[in-house]
Amino acid sequence: MVIMYHERQEAALCGQHCLNNLLQGPYFSASSLAQIAQALDEQEAKLMLEAGMTSEARAFLSQESANVDPSGNFSIQVLSTALQNMFGIQLEDSRRPENKNAMQRPDSQTGFVLNRHSHWYCLRKLDNQWWSCNSTQSAPEKITSSGNFSGLASTLRELVSDNWTVFIVKGDKWPPPAPRNQGAPPSNWVDPAHPPPDPHDPHAEVAFSNKAARREDPKFTAFAGEGRTLGGGGGGSGGGAVDMSKLSEEEQLAMALSLSQNLAQQARVPSEALVLDEGAPTTTLQVRMGDGSRKIVKANHTHTVAQLKAHVATFAPGVSFSLKGGFPPKPLEDDSLSLADAKLLNESIVFSPA
């Protein structure tokens, strides 16, 4: 019996589902991808401001994010950055000339990511078989039999002819499939030969065994407010953000120069790993620092919030800060909670200087 990790569609988070189904585990959350989108927005804004507050820069800053929309659709840049940062895995457009040979022998690859009309899903090779992992389906679908990959080539040709964009997943540091029933609801591990009923189907006779644990479709809010802001990251009125549209041109230029100088002066401190008990369950956290950089922290489920804060303090010696976690990010105030009890497993942590 084959058991596979399979996330089903929630809101418009197919990008998150695509990555986790590709990697066969709950490696990315909506919050961690949203933080990557925000960091990319800030990098793009910094580049636009290198020549000062030009008309092009003002127009760019007035637009909504190109990396995530309010419903939770993530861009290819976000998905690529997430895979690259975490595992050194790259997504390459199959239409590039150097990928012609790879598409002629697709069975030599390990995975493909597919996109059309803001929907993402993947094809993944496991146990010498190819599977279509689409979050709109209740379970992965086998598209080849063991050792016979003729169905893969025809499937890819049909997808391309149907205007799907195919990205080749390249890299040799694929993580192993996540341990069953760790870090996600048990219903996310399925037997493709006996797919579970669709929980949204009113005619389904059997509900998910962990119905109470299944999350409701979230009302995803990436970055509230209109356009981009400086000083507060992704927009909205919180966190000291400044609405650029309400400032004069001189004030906008002064703030842009200040932002550029601050980003240039912020130091990046090498991370240090916590002492792990390799025999106990572990989790991987992404800590987003004040300068937009990310630190990867591997910890045990039993490490406490206080221990996490002490570890993060090594990234910015002498700096007072607070941490936020979860989605939407909330202050981590109970230092006695374990990472598991604080629901921080595989989550993104936000570092905020005091």
TrEMBL record:
Keywords: Hydrolase, Nucleus, Protease, Thiol protease, Transcription, Transcription regulation, Ubl conjugation pathway. This is ubiquitinyl hydrolase 1. CDD domains: UBX_UBXN2. It is found in: Nucleus. Residues 173-204 are annotated as: Disordered. It holds the Pfam family UBX. GO terms for biological process: protein deubiquitination; proteolysis. InterPro entries: Ataxin-3, Josephin, Ubiquitin-like_domsf, UBX_dom. One of its GO terms (cellular component) is nucleus. It comes from the Eukaryota. SMART domains: Josephin.
